[in-house]
Write a structure and sequence with these properties.
The protein has 203 residues and is α+β, with helices and mostly antiparallel strands. The chain has helices spanning 3-12, 26-36, 57-71, 80-96, 113-135, 151-156; strands spanning 18-19, 49-53, 99-106, 139-143, 164-173, 175-177, 192-195, 198-201. It has six helices and eight strands. The strands form three sheets. Strands 2-3-5-4 form a four-stranded antiparallel beta sheet. A hairpin with a 2-residue loop joins strand 7 and strand 8. Helix 2 (26-36) crosses helix 5 (113-135). The two termini are 32 Å apart.
Amino acid sequence: MSVIDIFEAIRERRTILHYQPEEVDRDLLVHLFNKAAYAPNHHLKEPWKIKIYEGEARSAFGEKIVDSYIRLGLLDTLTDEKLKRARQSYDRFFRSVPHHALFYMEKEDDGGYLDDENYAAVCAFIQNFQLAAWAKEIGTMWTAKPTLRDDIFINDIGLSPEKHRLVAVVQIGYPRITPRTKGRTPVEDSIEWYNCGIEERGS
């Protein structure tokens, strides 16, 4: 891939909300994850781990997430009837996405510097995967909710709050609708330049 191809992939990638029903071939997903594994990581620890929910497992996974929303008070404003309809709506969403990938890592120092470093590496891995997937016309949506810190949810999916840190859930599939770009704010005003201890702004 040339430099311009990389820039185009970064600029043109979109967050996809609506997916075609067909699954992405598993071999292709593994291929893309292997490409993503060249993310930068101190001491090459490669901390990323992935659970992928597809087929009938999607509904059960979605139900655990909604249960977490309820525990965390995210749906407190809903009446019982509206909550019932919300569950049905969430189930339709989870079933409409071919693959839900949960990215997580093993803790090293209980939230200290090493865990921060590994967390950043997993995030870089996810972004690499998103760009590699987009190059194959596969869409993704990166989601991070308070559920990722819900100890009961973490236990419900077979992990340990003491041993594991959840990073993100990424929806994966071929796009049914691709949104237009919303552009980005220029970063010039977010940069501070220093030369010989003298701060320069907006240069």
